[in-house]
Amino acid sequence: MADVGKPERRVIVVPEEKPVSVPIPDQPKPVKAPEKEPA
Amino acid sequence: MIDFTAIRAGEEIVIGPLTAFRFWRYRLVPLQLLSWCLDERSWLPNEPFEADVPPELYSTHGVHAYKTTQGLLDYIRDPQALVDDFGLGLRKMDGIVLGSVGLWGAVVICKNGYRAQYARPQQFTQAFGNQADEVLARLRAYFQII
Predict the structure, then answer these.
(1) Which tens digits make up the pLDDT trace of B45-59?
(2) How many domains does chain B have?
């Protein structure tokens, strides 16, 4: 295309990533061990 | 997309994309957005346009764009004359469209603009040629941009 002028330097441009919100799944409720019945 | 293993020691990393200004050819049937150079690859929505060869400091490769709108206008001077002079000849176009692009990847920063590895249209601002107003609306809808 066009004459964009004298080159000055080469850089690496990294596109900014938009933050993504990730839902945290519900933590499983601890399962209570059945109480042992007294013998 | 970016090959991080190709980054050289000492090369600056910039968060982008960089916004710059350029123009394209368009064709109406079917609707096509093409670079001004004789590359016949269409620019497509949702797909970055990639330079044939990543730009190097002392080459001419890369997607060219200007730092400012004024820089672009200083280069093309008379958009309608470009269409009149080149439209039906070698460039095989119905007109030209001006706008902005996002640039990323390896980018050579030049005095008046950039040469970039990847580009994507951000805005279409003006069109000159056949059905110019209509094509502006069609391109904005096709690329889902302003």
Answers:
(1) 989 999 999 999 988
(2) 1
Q: What is the pTM of this model?
A: 0.83
Contact A12 B7 (CB under 8 A): yes
N-terminal to C-terminal alpha carbon distance within chain A: 90
Note whether residue B30 is domain-resident. yes
Q: The domain containing residue B63 runs over which residues? A: 16-143
Mean per-residue pLDDT over chain A, rounded: 77
A19 vs B contacts (CB less than 8 Å): none
Please identify among residues 45-64 of chain B the ones whose CB lies closer than 8 Å to any CB of chain A.
55-58, 64
Residue type at position B9: A
Q: Could you tell me if B114 and B65 are in contact, meaning their C-beta atoms sit under 8 angstroms apart?
A: yes
C-alpha–C-alpha distance, residues A38 and B21, integer Å: 82
DSSP state of B47: S
Is pLDDT above 90 for B82? Answer: no
Percent of chain B with pLDDT over 70: 97
B7 is a domain residue = no
